[in-house]
Design goal:
The complex is a heterodimer of chains A (about 325) and B (about 260). By secondary structure, chain A is mainly α. Chain A is built from 13 helices and no strands. Chain B is mostly helical. In chain B, α4 packs across α6 and α9 packs across α10. Classes of the chains: A mainly alpha (about 325), B mainly alpha (about 260).
Chain lengths: ~325, ~260
């Protein structure tokens, strides 16, 4: 057991090293020459060389990576090149905004999926079951971009209900937040439902058809009680592993797309701004931390459920 | 249902054939039409806020998405088949494939695409490269499992006894009988490639020269706020039709019977 845990830990550490090195190398490759960028085209070769030496750019990539790793471990993320703001504080604030956008959507989507699966499986193959299957297939076919725009059309445009604003997302006041939330919430919940319905329904249907259900039925246990008191708790580890596996890719995609579509100043928009401004330290911190968190969650899901979940879960594809 | 599928297939095939035509490209970029016009005899789907013909832009985007998506789907599947077959052929191949697949799965796809775009200086090759590098893993894993299942069949043992080598068995028996995995995966990867292009194009990270669904939907989003829904309905309908068609064909292929035993 201890050997297995140690081997698992070693494998995870190696994976995280490989992931963080890949992110570091890609950001460094796109950096161009920061010394030239700082001093301009008129700078002399000697000045450029001196600045490169000061910045440590004349050192091999592997050594610079080790420095970066050390800084990450000490929690030193540096300052943004654009406005000089501390990156850690900026990411914490953007992370809070992203969480306020995507977590309610994920939670509502999950509740919708499990609730509808529970109701639909009372009569498998009935109108609700088939309707939910159709809705999930249609939402998957439309994709997240169309869902985001469709919700805007329905709830925010003059052609629809015109009930909530698209721009101006703010966490300053609860009323403001609640006014902006409905459109992205609807689209996010539908995208979660679309992705999770097939697997959650299959898991639930399999558990409801298991032999131990007959014993519960013989003791007079009704459908609702069997579902909520026995079946869902029994499925909790499999569902948790599945969600842990599907949450990270969904979070990255949803954050990028919905923050752009609804002008929400979260991590996705910060990443796009960092790319547009070539803000190297901010990019490095964002890409490395996201990739590390992603790898850790995937490894945890794999450890919980094994390859059955990790190979059959569709990746976030919009 | 079958007729509708054939009709849709024919329409997207026509769009793919028409998309390289200079006349169509010119019409899609021409801004001399009326601004944000409703559908008419001259502009079947109306025009954008810049006066561009929406029908020409949707046909061009459909053709681009179908051809580029299919090319990427095939390239990604080819890599997955190669690595999946290697994994079954040799223990070293299996360990190598698993290590590579674990690394590829551990990198968030959109982050990889953005980082590659940054590393390659905004090159148009960043997205195709990101798709091929990250989406082969499921095909390789499913194929390795399928090959293992087929290898345990009697006819493969008979072929071995008859003197067929490992490569011959792979070529004549294992891969043809794995088509229920390979062909649907190629189409599903095509769908992934199309959706990835749509999302990155929508974020403004695609090529501005290419009339793609991502670009059309970004324009439709801006038009929507101004009260015009033509763009969203036209481009959204064409995109959803293509994605649903490919997904349907993939599920049909997965259910198709394998080749007769030889």
């Amino acid at each position: 057991m201890i050997t297995r845990l140690l081997l698992g830990g070693l494998r995870l550490a190696l994976l995280m090293l490989a992931v963080s090195f890949t992110g570091f190398a890609l950001v460094e490759a796109g950096a161009g020459d920061p010394a030239q960028a700082q001093l301009g085209r008129q700078a002399s070769a000697a000045d450029l060389q001196a600045l490169r030496s000061t910045l440590g750019l004349d050192r091999p990539l592997a050594l610079r990576y080790l420095d970066h790793l050390g800084q990450l471990l000490r929690g030193e993320l540096g300052q943004s090149l654009v406005d000089g703001a501390p990156i850690a504080a900026r990411l914490a604030e953007a992370g809070r905004v992203t969480a306020s956008l995507v977590l309610p959507g994920f939670g509502l989507g999950l509740l919708l999926t499990l609730g509808l699966a529970g109701l639909a499986l009372r009569h498998p193959g009935g109108w609700l079951d088939r309707g939910c299957g159709l809705l999930s297939a249609a939402a998957l076919g439309l994709g997240a971009v169309l869902l985001a725009l469709g919700a805007q059309w329905l709830l925010c445009s003059p052609a629809g209900l015109d009930a909530c604003p698209v721009r101006g997302w703010s966490l300053q006041s609860g009323t403001d937040y609640l006014r902006h939330l409905p459109a992205p919430l609807l689209a996010l919940a539908l995208s979660v439902f679309a992705a999770q319905w097939p697997a959650c329904r299959a898991l639930l249907a399999e558990a409801l058809a298991a032999p131990w259900q007959t014993g519960l039925q013989a003791r007079g246990c009704g459908y609702g009680r069997r579902l909520w008191r026995h079946t869902l708790p029994a499925l909790a580890p499999a569902l948790t592993a599945r969600l842990l596996y599907s949450l990270p890719p969904w979070l990255v995609g949803a954050s990028l797309l919905f923050e752009q579509a609804y002008a929400v100043p979260g991590l996705g928009l910060t990443l796009q701004q960092a790319l547009a401004a070539s803000d190297q330290p901010l990019l490095l911190a964002l890409i490395t931390l996201t990739a590390l968190g992603y790898a850790a969650l995937q490894a945890l899901a794999g450890a919980l459920a094994g390859p059955r979940v990790s190979t059959l879960t569709p990746s976030w594809a919009g | 249902m079958g007729r509708l599928i054939r009709l849709l297939l024919g329409l997207y095939l026509l769009a793919a054939l028409a998309s390289p035509l200079p006349a169509l490209r010119e019409r899609a970029r021409d801004t001399s039409g009326p601004l944000a016009a409703a559908p008419s005899a001259e502009h079947w789907l109306g025009t954008t806020r810049n006066g561009q013909d929406l029908a020409a832009r949707v046909v061009l985007a459909s053709g681009q998405a179908a051809t580029q998506g299919l090319a990427l789907g095939l390239a990604t599947t080819a890599l997955g088949v190669l690595l999946g077959a290697l994994a079954r052929a040799h223990a070293l191949g299996r360990h190598g494939m698993q290590a590579l697949a674990t690394l590829a799965d551990a990198l968030p796809f959109y982050l990889l695409a953005l980082a590659l775009g940054h590393a390659l200086g905004g090159s148009a090759w960043a997205l195709p490269l990101a798709i091929v590098l990250s989406q082969w893993t499921l095909t390789a894993r499913l194929l390795a499992i399928e090959l293992q299942r087929i290898e345990s069949s009697g006819f493969v043992a008979a072929a071995q006894v008859a003197g067929l080598g490992r490569l011959q068995r792979l070529r004549h028996h294992l891969l043809p009988h794995s088509r229920a995995v390979i062909l649907p995966q190629a189409l599903l990867t095509t769908v992934v490639a199309i959706k990835a292009e749509v999302l990155l194009g929508f974020l403004g990270l695609g090529s501005p020269e290419t009339v793609s669904f991502g670009l059309l939907l970004a324009e439709a989003g801006r038009d929507l706020l101004a009260g015009s829904v033509n763009g969203l309905i036209a481009s959204g309908g064409a995109l959803a039709g293509l994605v649903l068609l490919l997904s349907h064909l993939a599920s049909q292929l997965a259910r198709a019977p394998g080749p007769p035993l030889r």
